[in-house]
Amino acid sequence: MDLPITSPSLPGTAGTSDLILALPKGRILKEVQPLLARAGLVPGGDFHDEDSRHLRFPTNHPGLDVVRVRPFDVATFVAHGGAQIGVCGADVLMEFDYPEIYAPLDLGIGRCRVSVAGPADDPIADEAARWSRVTVASKYPGIARRHFAARGVQAEVVHLNGAMELAPSLGLARLIVDLVQTGSTLKANGLVEREVIAQVTSRLIINRTALKTEPERIGAWLARFREALTAS
Question: Where in this chain does the record put each ATP phosphoribosyltransferase catalytic domain (predicted)?
C-alpha cells in the first residue's frame, strides 16, 4: 500500500514522498526566513544554528524537508532533481541557464548587481569600447564571456571563487565581474564600477519535471509563497 503524502519522513533518509526545498547558506538564508514564516514553513532541528554540521532538516510539514547548501549549488540541486524547489539568486540562474529550472517568483530579497569593475586609476579605461581582448577575473565565466562577446570583445576569464578585487592589482586580470551590493569592498581595494550587467534578486525555482509529475503538491507550495509575498 502506498503511504499517504503526509507521512513523516525519517531524519536523514529520503522517503519516496519527500519534497526537498534547497536554501542558500549565508546572507540570503537570513533574508528568506521571514518569508518562510509567512508561508507557514518552520524548519526544525538545529536549522537556526549557523555552526550546525547538519545539512538537511525536517519541517513542520511532514513530507517536506529543507537542505542548506552553497548559494552556487542551489540551482544544480534543483536542476538535477536532488531538490524540487529552491531559493536561488538570479546571478546563478544567469550563469548556468539550466533548462530544467522554472523560476516563477521574484522574492525581492538579496538585492545586488552583477557588475564590471576595474582600477580607478586605469589610464585607458575610457577606451574600453575599442578593446578587442581583455582579461577578466570572475566566478561567473559564462556571464563575463557573454557580456563582452556582445560588445565584440574576447574575454579571457581567470576563474576565481573569491577575493576578485585583488586580481587587477596582482596582475591576474585587468577587470573583474562580480556581485556588488554597496561598492565598499571595491572602493577599499581601489576599484570602481565600470558597468552594471544585471540587477539581481533571489527567485523561487522549481524543477520542471517535478512540477509536471507532482503538480498539486508543488503547486500548493508555489501558491503559499505567492501569498506570502503578497502579505509582505
Answer: 70-226
What are residue 191's DSSP bridge partners?
119
CA dihedral 164, 170, 175, 176 (to 10 degrees): 0
Secondary structure (3-state) at 159: strand
pLDDT single digits (tens) 9-53: 333 334 446 899 999 999 999 999 999 999 999 999 899 888 889
Picking from 109, 117, 133, the residue whose alpha carbon sits closest to that of residue 178 is: 117
Cell numbers that stand for 195 in this block:
558597468
Q: Give the separation between CA 147 and CA 197, rounded to whole angstroms.
A: 7
- C-alpha 127/C-alpha 124 separation (Å) is 5
Give the model confidence (pLDDT) of 152-194 as tens digits: 999 999 999 999 999 999 999 999 999 999 999 999 999 999 9
Task: Report the distance separating Cα 61 and Cα 181, nearest Å.
Answer: 34
CA distance 156 to 134: 6
Whole-angstrom Cα distance, residue 218 to residue 38?
A: 17
